[in-house]
Amino acid sequence: xxxxxxxxxxxxxxxxxxxxxxxxxxxxxxxxxxxxxxxxxxxxxxxxxxxxxxxxxxxxxxxxxxxxxxxxxxxxxxxxxxxxxxxxxxxxxxxxxxxxxxxxxxxxxxxxxxxxxxxxxxxxxxxxxxxxxxxxxxxxxxxxxxxxxxxxxxxxxxxxxxxxxxxxxxxxxxxxxxxxxxxxxxxxxxxxxxxxxxxxxxxxxxxxxxxxxxxxxxxxxxxxxxxxxxxxxxxxxxxxxxxxxxxxxxxxxxxxxxx
Amino acid sequence: xxxxxxxxxxxxxxxxxxxxxxxxxxxxxxxxxxxxxxxxxxxxxxxxxxxxxxxxxxxxxxxxxxxxxxxxxxxxxxxxxxxxxxxxxxxxxxxxxxxxxxxxxxxxxxxxxxxxxxxxxxxxxxxxxxxxxxxxxxxxxxxxxxxxxxxxxxxxxxxxxxxxxxxxxxxxxxxxxxxxxxxxxxxxxxxxxxxxxxxxxxxxxxxxxxxxxxxxxxxxxxxxxxxxxxxxxxxxxxxxxxxxxxxxxxxxxxxx
Lengths: 259, 256
Description:
The structure holds two protein chains of two kinds. By secondary structure, chain A is of the alpha/beta class. Helices cover 37% and strands 25% of the residues of chain A. The N terminus of chain A is likely disordered. The relative contact order of chain B is 0.16. In chain B, 86% of the residues lie in helices and 0% in strands. Chains A and B meet through helix 3 and helix 4 of A and helix 4 of B.
């Protein structure tokens, strides 16, 4: 077992506390005989930045896909702003998704659309009623936030890996989400570009006071972005503490991540 | 009794395709309707296929006429050449060949496009952006393929008959008026209607199979290639199966 400070007191964490942006309680998710999440519990307070750390294939991406409603949990509750994601109607889920940004590991930019169209897409699809002038302003503002206003009429294929990640982040930002879910934001990037993305994430957190849930196994990213780190081991929330305290933890399952 | 693995796999695939088709019908007629995307797909699927179908149809009409001529001359019925070619093109060869070309071009393109979107998480990104990806990607493409193939086949048959007119005139002289009068006189309502109706089914099959293969693509870029390939193979086979069923049904209805 991990040390006292990191032991997860799940039911206490997941109270009906309205300060929680996300509350996950007794979450189970399997794919056939592969039990990915087993009684997983987590609460994230508004404005907090939580990193979920785990080995490849440990179920980190499955976790955030359950939070956004892309995957349906087998059992358990996921409440985002107090609404149970797996029980609400499709229209309500869409409204909720407008408040939750998702940065995909592969960026997921639409290849057939320009950068501008990529950014406009969530605005139009969420039926946000704004004039074209306002849309243009919002697109440029989001691109400005990531320092790529000059790429507005380019195609994704013309951009480098780091630029695509920034554009994907701009697309996430355009709806001014209250929560941002980051799936491996620095994977596949060189250390310098990775650092730029981390700085950008911190700037966004500061500027918009967003709640962040970051999935990563890049220790540099974990250290620089986390208020709190959750370690996912064998489908469970094994440890839950600050970076500094976890770093000093002697438990072998925790220690392996910091060696 | 345990069925062989190949048969089980075939039945499982057929079951999945049926479920996918059921999902299409359950979502297709419920709002929100993606009219802009549907129109865009009609343009992409219909307009972009026209040059290829036009060219192949023209060559087919020309070659068919040139190949038939010697036998017709031997039997002394050369003058019936426009009638025979007209019936063959309108009833069978035109729809089937055009549908096969369409399956090769559009089936593979839909399979690869959706497959690539699936493996790069673009479909998930659409869902997160408040879009029902099934409606936006699948329903629009299937409707566009269903409606555009009949139009392409009508145009293809016409171009094919022009090819035939050229073929008739390479070794002989037949006026345009005589050629078209013979073609039109030889065609009855029972020739045209079943041939036209089955083209909707061809288009639907190509669209739904392309979307099914792409939407369920997996295993990275290799999976995308496999989706595109199997979309063409399965859609082409389905064209023949539908054609066979159409002939049986027209026969039963006494339209032959």
